[in-house]
Design a protein that fits this description.
Blueprint: H1 15-19, H2 22-47, H3 51-67, H4 73-85, H5 87-99, H6 104-116, H7 127-131, H8 138-148, E1 157-162, H9 165-176, E2 182-187, H10 194-208, E3 212-218, H11 230-235, E4 240-244, E5 258-259, E6 262-266, E7 270-274, E8 291-293, E9 296-301, H12 304-315, E10 341-347, H13 355-366, E11 370-374, H14 382-393, E12 397-403, H15 409-424, E13 428-432, E14 435-437, E15 441-444, E16 448-452, H16 458-463, E17 464-472, H17 477-488, E18 491-493, H18 496-500, H19 504-513
Parallel strand pairs: 2-3, 3-4, 5-17, 8-14, 11-12, 12-13
Antiparallel strand pairs: 1-9, 2-6, 6-7, 7-9, 10-17, 11-15, 13-18, 15-16, 16-17
Helix pairs in contact: 3-4, 4-5, 9-10, 13-14, 15-19
Amino acid sequence: MSDIYRLAKPRKKGLIHLLFSRFFVIVLLLVVQLLLVVGFYGWLKGLLPIFEAALVVLTVGTVIYLFNSGMDSTARLTWMFIIAILPVSGAALLAFTQMNLGHRAIQRREAELIDATRSAIPQPEGVLERLAGDPSGTDDLVTYLNQSNCFPVYDRTEVRFFPMGEDKFAAMLEELKKAEKFIFMEYFIIEEGFMWGSILEILVEKAKVGVDVRVMYDGMLEISTLPANYCKLLEEKGIKAKAFAPIRPVISSHYNYRDHRKILVIDGKVAFNGGVNLADEYINRVERFGHWKDTAVMLRGDAVKSFTLMFLQMWNITEKEPEFEPWLKDTRYVPEQPSGFVIPYGDCPLDDDKVGETVYMDILNRATDYVHIMTPYLILDGELETAIKYAARRGVDVKLILPGIPDKSLAYALAKAHYKRLVEAGVKIYEYTPGFVHAKVFVSDDKKAVVGTINLDYRSLYHHFECATYMYQTACIADIERDFQATLTKCRRVTPESIKGEKLSYKIMGQLMQFIAPLM
């Protein structure tokens, strides 16, 4: 990899650099705003003699609002706990989050784009007819998914499963070199290094010969791995680039909604999806939290159009004149060995539909033999925990693989807080001893599978833009289950005895963090 493709200067770690960094300025301004709010609260408390009476009215009113709101029961309990301890501050925070200050414009814009493209991809003829009456319920799932967006079901699509990030990376490089018309990339994390440098080298060369290359990444990177001018650095290389919702020094609930998707589309013919971001730990080029276990899929055929549409919907949020049609034309690709049905789908946190959770619960509720799950995080609301336990109690073999080495101690402790209840219900839980599991996989009954970006936590299920690939009767489902069984051999099983012997710090932390789990 040539040094020319390390576009950003390495970030210095010294105190002086930190004090004069953009990150420090943003944090300082946010702290100043918080201090002003706290100061106003203190002034108000000392000024009004009827403060206590007003406090009771405020608390009762807030509780009544919560009971009549559309949020799930676990989130309601969290807010009630916060308001019981900090009535005024808690009520103010609740009002702030519910008013959606800072992202009403993007919410309105996203709704407009979804409505405008609801029929952008026609449902392929004959596919729904083949599924009608199928006991899998896949036809019902398609009906549900198309109410939230344009997510047809396809039968002319090949799907290849990658059990490791390294496998996806090798295939990505191979397919990128074949690009002739366009390359669309939307990733939660991009970090300079071997993986991104190798990809960027190809992107620059393709841009030089007229390929439409677009890169979109989450704006949180601008205070973590990339500088604020990274889009400009990419544009100087001929690449169109955008950061989704970059952090500004103004308090806003908009920052809670991140673009967690991982999408690569090449010429409308090939698409990649899964958990693998564009950083060296995802291909085990560097070690973080032991061995990094991740998965992905590559689609070739009609279903690619859905990922093209998902990318364009996000890209066009900031465009005055959005364009869709030129990139959604039929590619007329006929797979050599088509099998089964494929539904790419996305989830948007700006509406009331919990698409990612609903698809997972549909698999759990319809399973007859097994549901095998890999997830890096386990922070469940009441409904999803009930669905998992119910599946196990009615005789379905429910197995979960989680990390043996965590990336976040608080999330790890919260996951362990669920262990006792799940194990008592018959759920079998395993921890991956070599390191960290970042895969997001559901596979069931040798018939269904989901590979995508959606974790089993509140961030993914409620607060992130997400996407995934639902598969029914596709050939690669056997590969996904084989990979699960192979991964299982590298895991330790969680038992009632191991739960009792867990570190006291994890037990205490997990119990305490459950109060605010929906806010994490």
